[in-house]
Amino acid sequence: MESELSVREELQGLEELQELDTKLQKLTGELEALPSQLVELETDLDANKVLLQKAQALVEKSQKDQRESEEALATLREQLVKYKVQLMEVKTNKEYQAVLKEISLTEQGISTTEDNILELMLDADDILQESKQFEMEFHEKNREVQGRIQAAQNSADDAEKLLEKSKESRLELVTTVSPESLSHYERISKARGGLGLAKIMDGSCQGCNVRLRPQLVAEIRAAIRIGVCEKCQRFLYFETLET
Ligand SMILES: [Zn+2]
Description:
By secondary structure, the protein is mainly alpha-helical. Helix content is 78%, strand content 4%.
């Protein structure tokens, strides 16, 4: 009776160890994923930043174009004044006609430049609105991304704490398992994707699906001994032992 209980107890210990190790693997995985998660979030934000920068560059270009046109307009107006003064000083009809022509050309230039400025101003409104829209979207995205970065860091902190606690629990738990079983468990777990135990279902190992010898299954069911799968070498257990 006493040895039966100790087999059950040992298997129970191994099951708990497996459960804890699975948790540890998950936590470690979460922590390892954090840096790339953060990069992904930053990249997401960068896309919005690029859109905003392009829109801001358009605003700057539009303002520069407007400024240059205003300067050109001012120069043309100065020229017009000069030509009008010149017109009063000319001596010959030929000179008079020549200056009149210059005045006409300058007036045309002024008219064209004024139209141009008006068009630039109308466009500038749209460009500015668009830039403001991108700016709003960027700030919104930035808030969202910063929130998600904070959340990811918080959950990483939680995972870190839980990991430390679980490591301490593991130190206690391994004392409930015999050194031979522990070393077998750790070797197999390492070699087989972190799983050192496999359930028995319908007479088969759920770790590798091999059909188990009925006698082995019977012995494990009766808790006569701790048994391992002959193919994958995982410790075998029945679900019922979990309770
Ligand atoms: Zn197996």
